[in-house]
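U., I forgot to send this yesterday:
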Amino acid sequence: MSDPAATPPAFETWNVPECPFTIEYRASLMQELRAAVAYGQQAFTRGGMEVGGVLLGLHTEAGISIRAWRPIACEHAHGPALVLSERDRGELRKFLDDLPVLRDLSGLGPVGWFLSHTRSDISLRDSDLQLFNEFFSAATDVALVLRPGRHGAARAGFFFRNPDGSVAADQSLLEFNIEGESLWMSRPAERIPVALPELPPRPPATAPATPPSSETASAWLQTRRAETPEAHGDEPGETSEADELEEVEEPDEFGETDNAEAPMALPEPRLTGRRSWRWIALPIAALIAIGWLYFTRNRVIEPLDLPINMTVTDRDGQLVVEWDHARPELQQVQSGQIAVVDGSAKVNLPLTPAEAQRGSFTFERQSGDVRVSLHLERPGKPLNASARFLGAPPVREKPVSDADAAELDRLRTENTQLRTEVDRSRSRTAQAETVIRVLRERVDAAEAKAAARH
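Result:
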């Protein structure tokens, strides 16, 4: 058996006649990039969030060999696209400067970068080219663009520099597919056993009901057929006993059936011939109803509150609400409020004891239909009043700046929503980095075990 650490993992190559060198990469590394891109696609509800990373590897005689990658931090200050801010560029520059002293990446250097496009084809935008030329300007540095697809798969393509330094950014000269994890793991030549966490034991159901066996169901159906022959006849087109037995499902290993939501119907209880209790209950109910009607018609119903007179008057768009300030009960008012329904707007205005005793309130109406309700709390019964104003809507000149103010409010709301999404994306990016690191460790361990078996 060979040393697992000395056995190199499986590599694949990408090369076209126009490219002066060969690009070599680990197949499992492409699976890691595909998983990172798929995770970013689920960050936002529409189109997803674009992600990127630094490709690390070695320079060989044939070209470059991509061995690892690290994510590029992006706060997405300009939206879901991968456009780096000044702070993002500073962090990327610091990472590239500190790369030679990082222990876990000893011997590896930057050989390019990758990014995902969730809203466009496999190509390089102007912002992508700017980042490509600023941070990865070597002649053999490459750019890899991935576009996520259905069922976890992705399409990808490399971009490189021509001998004159130009980049054909419109499209990749050779695109290739990255299969989803289920298809990739199912291929015999590349299947890598990954140690997955064991699922917790299924909790037992409380008071599990024992499902009927076929013999019990058959006996029950025969009993039902004997009791109600009209419902279980053997006429053509009716359900036979054998057909009904086919619908009885056997329990699984947990004592449940697939049709647990619809339990077997049980025989309905038959009515007995003892109906004498009805002849006693009906007269009692009639006597109770007669007594209740007599009591309600002869008793004096006292009001729950004290009414008070109130009027509403319009004075050039100002609605003046007045109520009887001479009522002695107003001296005992502790608090109160006026409820105003002005067209589609509803407002509750609190009143102090002094305002309630003054007996008037003025506000500016916005429509021609205003309903006002007054409620004053006092010891004993409260004071209530209501009035309604119907008239022409007030004439007001609309300021020119209203449209601008509405647009500004809309932009502020949109900005707040975008900032919230950016904060969420940062949290998801941190979680994605943790998931990717765990996946990378599992894949490396699996590759070592697979190589040791060979």
